[in-house]
């Protein structure tokens, strides 16, 4: 058991925790989200996109805080706007900073526990605050906390009811590196417990640490979803960049050019070459055979662009993703 | 338990020191003004008291208190982004409207209704005036509180919209006869006051039963619209 005292709710009848179908949302003629469809199951899913891509609007729509102009959102098969009872299974860490004036962390989290109908709100509150390393007996009001502390209190109120769906909008904002590591571990443990955890971020490094399952949102559209390495493999129109380290780079480069499998070959150092290939599988066979023929030692054959940043750059089509660090 | 927790949360949010101090000051001023008026040797103290209750209480202090506290009850959490912590919960959403209404009345009654009735009694300590002033101010408090809870929920800059509503509809349009007056909380409240002291007063178009029924309909209508909009509103 990780965060809160409450166990995972088990009542939901439909198996898919989050189901989004053809959702569009616009504000005064500006399209914020356009025809987005996806399902999210248990485990940690990271939602990545530049600032203004529509991530927060999408998360707010999933929670029911705003209704879609087109399409449907279902949590365990139920519409969160029409059926507030499904919100018993939801915990949200909103992006905004505001907290109630003069309210202590304990009271803030307890408020959530009571409104969720948690059986023992005091015990659940203490457990939730402890899970984010906050002192339940701190007399200060939340307003006086640092940004990182407020963020942790917001997370505690989202966990206090033991939700099976946890939605966190940029939850690592304002946290120091140690707290980031701690919270990322916490999200992982929540996902491992079978909870559905959706975490948005515009910071690539963060998303990579949340895991490989991503939803990439760009300009209000879902650019891709799934494991980002699998997404990269599916991009047939983008040659894979591969680095080969060997004791005979020039000879191996010449062999690759002759094989016509590589679209470009560069000798980048005394023991390395870089090449671009479309068919990675054939390339691995070819280079192994060429190395054997040339009596060359292969030290490393490593992809250079199957990291999240490269995948994101390809999907969004931006050389340096706007707003994404 | 949910209602109590919501109630305490909203009450703390709304009752800032500045607001409380402001209306305590207004109440004190009302009582001082009433004392000065009563010391002037009035020919008809009861009529003067009714006029005082109407001008200071029903037209000014009660609607202003309802405006300030009512619009803040939902408007403050909506504007500062904390409403999500109340709205995104497995509760019946009309409960938010009812709680905001209860919080508003909790503050309007002691800070506006009681001082207004007390000031009226300072001018003319009669049973008829007490009955009329108490009923009229309570009716006004109910109607205005319901309306301003709704206004705080559906508008930004609700204080400005609220003042415009008071000046235009309650004080100007309502003078256009009993038909238009039916839309104004003040017309119903002042009708009750006028009946109690048996005096003609501006916009007092209705008998006591009609006035109370009309005010009840307005109050219920404002609350119903607010409760219905809870489910349809976009929360930030």
Task: Write the SSE topology.
The complex is a heterodimer of chains A (325) and B (236).
Chain A: E1 18-27, E2 30-40, E3 43-48, H1 55-63, E4 70-75, E5 90-93, H2 105-115, H3 121-131, H4 147-159, E6 165-169, H5 177-192, E7 196-201, H6 204-210, E8 213-218, E9 221-227, H7 228-234, E10 240-246, H8 249-259, E11 262-269, E12 272-277, H9 280-294, E13 298-303, H10 308-316
Parallel strand pairs in A: 3-7, 3-8, 5-6, 6-7
Antiparallel strand pairs in A: 1-2, 1-4, 8-9, 10-12, 10-13, 11-12
Helix pairs in contact in A: 2-3, 2-4, 3-4, 8-9
Chain B: H1 2-14, H2 17-38, H3 45-80, H4 84-87, H5 94-123, H6 127-154, H7 158-170, H8 178-181, H9 185-197, H10 208-232
Helix pairs in contact in B: 1-3, 1-5, 2-3, 2-5, 3-5, 3-6, 3-7, 3-9, 5-6, 5-10, 6-7, 6-9, 6-10, 9-10
Describe this structure in words.
The complex is a heterodimer of chains A (325) and B (236). Chain A is α/β, with parallel strands linked by helices. Chain A has 2 domains: 215 residues, Rossmann fold (3-Layer(aba) Sandwich); 66 residues, 2-Layer Sandwich (Alpha-Beta Plaits). Chain A has 10 helices and 13 strands. A 6-stranded mixed beta sheet of chain A has the order 5-6-7-3-8-9, sandwiched between helices. In chain A, strands 11-12-10-13 form a 4-stranded antiparallel beta sheet, covered by helices on one side. Chain B has 236 residues and is an all-alpha fold. Chain B has one domain. In chain B, helix 3 packs antiparallel against helix 5 and helix 6 runs parallel beside helix 10. Chain B is globular and about 60 Å long. The two termini of chain B are 26 Å apart. Chains A and B meet through helix 2 of A and helix 1 and helix 4 of B.
């Amino acid at each position: 058991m990780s965060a809160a005292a409450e166990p995972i709710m088990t009542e939901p009848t439909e198996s898919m925790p989050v189901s989004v179908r053809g959702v569009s949302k616009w504000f005064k003629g500006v399209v914020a989200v356009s025809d987005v469809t996806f399902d999210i199951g248990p485990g940690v899913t990271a939602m990545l996109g530049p600032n203004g891509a529509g991530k927060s609007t999408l998360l707010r729509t999933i929670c029911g805080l705003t209704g879609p102009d087109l399409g449907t959102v279902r949590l365990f098969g139920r519409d969160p706007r029409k059926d507030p009872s499904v919100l018993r299974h939801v915990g949200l860490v909103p992006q905004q900073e505001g907290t109630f004036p003069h309210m202590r962390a304990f009271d803030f989290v307890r408020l959530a526990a009571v409104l969720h109908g948690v059986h023992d709100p005091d015990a659940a509150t203490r457990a939730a605050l402890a899970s984010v390393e906050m002192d339940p007996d701190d007399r200060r009001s939340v307003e006086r906390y640092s940004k990182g502390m407020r963020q942790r209190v917001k997370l505690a109120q989202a966990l206090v009811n033991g939700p099976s769906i946890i939605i966190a909008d940029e939850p690592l904002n304002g946290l120091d590196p140690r707290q980031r590591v701690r919270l990322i571990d916490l999200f992982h443990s929540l996902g491992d417990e079978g909870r559905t955890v959706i975490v948005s971020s515009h910071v690539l490094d963060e998303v990579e640490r949340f895991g490989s399952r991503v939803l990439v949102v760009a300009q209000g559209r879902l650019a891709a979803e799934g494991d980002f390495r699998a997404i990269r493999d599916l991009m047939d129109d983008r040659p894979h960049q591969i680095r080969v380290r060997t004791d005979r780079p020039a000879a191996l480069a010449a062999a690759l050019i002759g094989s016509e499998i590589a679209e470009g070959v560069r000798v980048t150092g005394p023991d390395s070459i870089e090449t671009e290939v479309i068919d990675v599988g054939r390339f691995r066979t070819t280079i192994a055979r060429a190395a054997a023929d040339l009596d060359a030692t292969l030290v490393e054959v490593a992809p250079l662009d199957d990291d999240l940043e490269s995948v994101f750059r390809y999907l969004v089509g931006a050389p340096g993703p706007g707003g994404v660090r | 338990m949910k209602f109590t927790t919501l109630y305490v949360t909203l009450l703390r949010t709304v009752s800032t020191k500045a607001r409380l101090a402001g209306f305590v000051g207004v109440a004190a001023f009302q009582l001082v003004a009433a004392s000065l008026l009563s010391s002037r040797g009035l020919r008809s103290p009861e009529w003067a008291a009714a006029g005082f209750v109407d001008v200071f209480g029903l037209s000014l202090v009660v609607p202003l208190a309802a405006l300030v506290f009512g619009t803040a009850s939902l408007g403050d959490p909506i504007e500062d982004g904390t409403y999500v912590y109340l709205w995104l919960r497995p509760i019946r959403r009309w409960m938010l409207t009812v709680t905001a209404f209860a919080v508003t009345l909790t503050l309007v009654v002691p800070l506006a209704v009681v001082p207004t009735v007390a000031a009226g009694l300072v001018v003319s300590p009669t049973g008829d005036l007490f009955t009329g002033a108490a009923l009229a101010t309570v009716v006004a408090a109910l109607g205005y509180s319901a309306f301003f809870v709704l206004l705080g929920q559906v508008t930004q800059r609700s204080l400005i919209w609220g003042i415009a509503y008071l000046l235009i509809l309650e004080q100007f349009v309502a003078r256009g006869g009993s038909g238009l007056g039916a839309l104004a909380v003040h017309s119903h409240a002042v009708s009750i006051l006028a009946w109690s002291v048996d005096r003609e007063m501006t916009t007092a178009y209705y008998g006591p039963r009609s006035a109370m029924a009309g005010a009840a309909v307005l109050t219920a209508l404002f609350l119903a619209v607010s409760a219905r909009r809870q489910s349809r509103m976009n929360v930030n």
